[in-house]
Specification:
The structure is a homodimer of 125-residue chains. Chain A has 125 residues and is α+β, with helices and mostly antiparallel strands. Chain A has five helices and five strands, in the order αααββββαβα. The first copy, chain A, has a three-stranded mixed sheet with strand order 4-3-5. In chain A, strand 3 and strand 4 form a beta hairpin. The longest helix of chain A is centred in the middle third of the chain and has 13 residues. Chains A and B meet through strand 3, strand 4, helix 4 and strand 5 of A and strand 3, strand 4, helix 4 and strand 5 of B. Strand 5 of chain A pairs antiparallel with strand 5 of chain B. Chain A binds a DNA duplex (30 and 30 nucleotides) through helix 3.
DNA sequence: TAATAAAATAGTAATCATTACTGATTTGGG
DNA sequence: CCCAAATCAGTAATGATTACTATTTTATTA
């Protein structure tokens, strides 16, 4: 089935210790400090596998990069069009899953992305 | 500012007449039946512009393609992991926008994507 | 511990949706 | 009609991601 690998463990460790919704390449750079000769392909393969297994979240905000999130609970992602940041916001429940089920769809993961201007860019620009 | 072009009009016409959340390439193929020598780059440029202006919606479900939607109202997108289809579901309100505003974020567009198995794949497979 | 098959890896090459570029054409205002 | 800005067709370039291959690691069984 699924064997242990220290590469996958390091990837999960790095991802669990940030709240920046990093890209595969950012994770690669960080993991290299733990396993210097890890391959970029290994990072991509593991992230893809972990996301398929539901262990992590894959967020696509349309900036040309796939972003990853260690927090798999349903929550909102606020993507700033100006600075590109992605911040989290808690949701009291999962209204998307509720609506989906009502139409006969069986949801496994729900993704919420808001596009706009973040608080920081609003006040400083 | 923004000049009229029959290419952009044809793109909007095609997009408005489908509910399949097409890709740029699909739209290109359709528009070619109206304007045979239209360029794929023109389709991409207009779709990107229209989506930036808020005239259409850009949906990214992580299948490697950007999808477009003529309906800009906040609604749910149900993406089947099996057949790849994207269906709509109405939302009574816009809970994501509400939560975003509460944190100081100014939302312009909100995207809801549920991943799972559609009704059709559930019953037929 | 040794043997074995499945899983995973490093390194590199290939893919392909999307973007960038260029010189020609179209649009809209005066 | 004139002109500047906008748009276009056609083509080349980009770059994030995936595919490939020979080697190494893992987990199981004897």
């Amino acid at each position: 089935m699924k064997n242990y690998s220290k590469q996958r463990e390091a990837i999960l460790t790095v991802l669990s210790q940030t709240d920046t919704h990093p890209t595969a390449n950012w994770i690669y750079e960080q993991v290299r400090e733990i396993i210097p000769n890890i391959s970029l392909g290994t990072v991509y393969r593991n992230l893809s596998q972990l996301s398929q297994d539901g262990d992590i979240l894959s967020i696509n905000v349309g900036d040309g990069f796939e972003h990853f999130d260690y927090d798999t609970s349903p929550h909102a992602h606020l993507h700033c069009k100006k600075c590109g940041c992605i911040h989290d916001a808690r949701l009291e429940n999962d209204p998307l899953a509720k609506v989906a089920k009502k139409t006969g769809f069986t949801p496994e993961t729900t993704i919420y992305v808001a596009y706009g201007i973040c608080q920081n860019c609003n006040t400083n620009n």
